[in-house]
Design brief:
This protein is 64% helix and 0% strand. With 432 residues, it is mainly alpha-helical. It is globular. It starts with 12 loop residues before the first helix and ends in a 30-residue tail after the last helix. The N terminus is likely disordered.
Length: 432
């Protein structure tokens, strides 16, 4: 059931138009219902995790083909039924439950197709391979479930990050116990989260049907609690795994993991290339070099502190998104109706974005002031567009962040829920 109202997929605009799902402060839609549980490229995961023999591979490939065909047929049927239902209903008489009925009927069939596939694969395994089955299930569940992450830090896969680092064998051995513990703890947290969402989805559907936004927000806050459980496992495991690795790999792992989970806080240094260009000027005096190096060290310290502030702010503020998003939706609706409504609070990250922009500008200007006009001309000639982009958090945008429909509501701008796009696994695919 959790797949019923997860992400909005514009399956048919005529179906979705009458309903303001966003008013309930959370992700709602049909995306997961139309996303297969097994993809052809999962063949690699199956082979590597279960250590398939050569003779087993064609059998499993055939099973994947059969599953894919059955899944596509089911999805096509659901789409046709939903479009027919939407056409048969008019205007305000449309019922959310009625329109979603084909999906409700499809979900058990979707689950049955997946279970039959898994049982068929397991039936081809030897006793030794069956011992690897629990690990395969955890890996597959991790791939699928981490896609459905709504909080920064919730959807990162720390095992993938360690593989990407190509660690030496001694570092892998040192971290293996912490990694094994992480795999088990994360799997348990994902099961708890999705079980909780399963239990709440029928109530959520009722709230949408009656347009009870208060109830919808309360349910979303309950879901957030289960999401926080997953994120807590992620955050604590980052520190444990980093501590288990020998230097310098532990610090590198921590930085990579936090950057993957909290992308806005750990965006690349916006002044790294600037300082590199300045330091490459051939006619810098000793005094200039000393002053520039001091400015660089000061900036790096300020950036490190700002990143930690952003990290703490994102962790504390993001769980309140359902309340904030609902207030935004209510304010927009009131504005369209010519009424007044309580204005949503500015997102807690906005002041930190402003501070970062200010520090970037001040640091750049301070360094440029150390240079001669001739040196500035050399830089401008060698690096087109050296001047920083206009601040995206000027007073007008700050005001827009308070107004429904203002610039601050746009994705990636102050007032949005996230300043950068979520780092989602590449596995997300749907069947058209």
């Amino acid at each position: 059931m959790r797949n019923l109202l997860r992400r909005i997929v514009l399956l048919a605009p005529l179906i979705l138009a009458p309903f303001t799902f966003a008013q309930f402060g959370g992700k709602a839609g049909f995306g997961e219902a139309f996303r297969p549980d097994i993809l052809p490229r999962d063949m690699t995961l199956i082979v590597e995790t279960l250590k398939l023999e050569d003779w087993q591979r064609p059998i499993v490939e055939s099973l994947i083909e059969d599953y894919t065909a059955g899944f596509k047929t089911g999805c096509d049927t659901v789409r046709e039924k939903m479009v027919d239902l939407a056409k048969s209903q008019k205007g305000a008489s449309k019922s959310i439950k009625g329109l979603l009925a084909p999906i409700s009927a499809w979900l058990p069939e979707k689950q049955r197709l997946f279970q039959e596939f898994m049982a068929s694969v397991k039936g081809q395994l030897s006793d030794v391979q069956r011992e690897r089955w629990p690990k395969f299930e955890r890996t597959l569940r991790r791939e699928q479930a981490l896609q459905d992450s709504d909080l920064s830090g919730e959807g990162v896969d720390l095992i993938v990050i360690t593989k990407q680092m190509q660690l030496p064998n001694d570092a892998v051995v040192a971290a293996q116990e912490a990694l094994d513990e992480y795999e088990v703890l994360l799997d348990a947290a994902l099961i708890v989260r999705d079980t909780q969402i399963d239990a709440l989805m029928p109530k959520f559907s009722d709230a949408m049907e009656s347009m009870d936004m208060d109830k919808g927000v309360a349910l979303q806050m309950e879901i957030m609690k289960s999401r926080l459980g997953v994120r807590t496992v992620q955050d604590e495991s980052i520190e444990k795994i980093a501590a288990a690795m020998p230097a310098p790999y532990g610090a590198d792992f921590r930085q990579r993991a936090l950057a993957a989970g909290y992308r806005e806080a750990f965006q690349p240094d916006p002044l790294a290339s600037f300082f590199q260009v300045v330091m490459e000027l051939s006619d810098l005096t000793t005094e200039q070099k000393t002053a520039i190096e001091a400015a660089k060290a000061k900036w790096e310290g300020e950036l490190a502190g700002l990143r930690e502030k952003m990290l703490a702010t994102m962790r504390a503020d993001e769980p309140n998104k359902p309340v904030r998003s609902t207030k935004v939706a209510q304010a927009r609706l009131a504005a369209k109706q010519g009424k007044t409504a309580e204005q949503p609070p500015i997102e807690a990250m906005v002041p930190l974005r402003n501070e970062k922009n200010r520090l970037v500008q001040e640091t750049r200007e301070g360094v440029m002031a150390l240079l001669t006009q001739e040196q500035k001309d050399k830089m401008a000639a060698g690096v087109p567009g050296l001047r920083p982009p206009p601040s995206q958090t000027d007073p007008a945008l700050l005001e827009g962040a308070r107004k429904p429909g203002g610039k601050g509501d746009a994705a990636g701008k102050p007032g949005s829920e996230k300043g950068v796009e979520d780092d989602k696994p590449a596995r997300k695919e749907t069947v058209d």
